[in-house]
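Hi all, posting the design record for the shared folder.

TITLE: backbone redesign
STEP: 1 of 1
STRUCTURE INPUT:
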């Protein structure tokens, strides 16, 4: 049946184009990431329960330097990583939990999403539903159950920097991270990626 064959070829070409544009998008994000040493951004994070209702929202400043050095500075919390150690400081309780970055399952590593996870995932471009423009975003779905998420969607801006990420975890909770006012290659001192506990802070060292 000629019609069926034409339809099948058409469908296949869409799938191939989609896979190609997904890998091109990944490449663009990776190349951009490799070309910058650091960036700062205003950052907001929301999380939603399994019914899709927003459960909480935080906002602050995100500072990032290559090799998993970062500072997430929020109203009641500060998370600092020097690439090996992570400090999670609770301002309200004046308490800091210190652990190895590799041992902390909650550690948010942009580099993993840019470099490590894409090869372990099926990648496709999906239409951005909340946008009236014809925008497409990158969707990554793990090929097996080893990763700690079911789905990640990545938005990039015209400069191929990540502007937003959505993650659905194994328990179907959804987390949304948005980066605004991104400034690359700032003059950042290395000391800011080491946390010095204020006097009287309760230190819980898990290392």
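Okay, here is what came back for every position:
SEQUENCE:
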């Amino acid at each position: 049946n000629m019609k069926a064959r034409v339809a099948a070829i058409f469908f296949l070409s869409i799938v191939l184009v989609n896979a190609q544009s997904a890998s091109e998008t990944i490449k663009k994000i990776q190349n951009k990431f490799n070309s910058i040493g650091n960036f700062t951004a205003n950052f907001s994070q929301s999380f939603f329960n399994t019914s899709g209702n927003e459960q909480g929202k935080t906002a602050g400043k995100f500072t990032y330097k290559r090799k998993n050095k970062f500072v997430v500075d929020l109203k009641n919390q500060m998370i600092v990583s020097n690439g090996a150690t992570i400090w999670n400081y609770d301002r309200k309780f004046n308490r800091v939990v210190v652990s190895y970055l590799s041992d902390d399952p909650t550690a948010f590593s942009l580099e993993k999403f840019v470099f490590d996870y894409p090869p372990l995932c099926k990648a496709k471009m999906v239409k951005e539903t909340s946008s009236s423009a014809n925008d497409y975003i990158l969707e990554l779905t793990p090929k097996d159950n080893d990763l700690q998420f079911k789905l990640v969607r990545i938005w990039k801006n015209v400069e191929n920097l990540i502007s937003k990420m959505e993650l659905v975890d194994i328990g179907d909770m959804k987390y949304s991270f948005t980066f605004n006012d991104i400034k690359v290659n700032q003059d950042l001192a290395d000391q800011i990626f080491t946390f010095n506990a204020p006097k009287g802070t309760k230190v819980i060292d898990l290392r």
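COMMENT: The chain has a mean pLDDT of 88.
Let me know if anyone wants the other runs.
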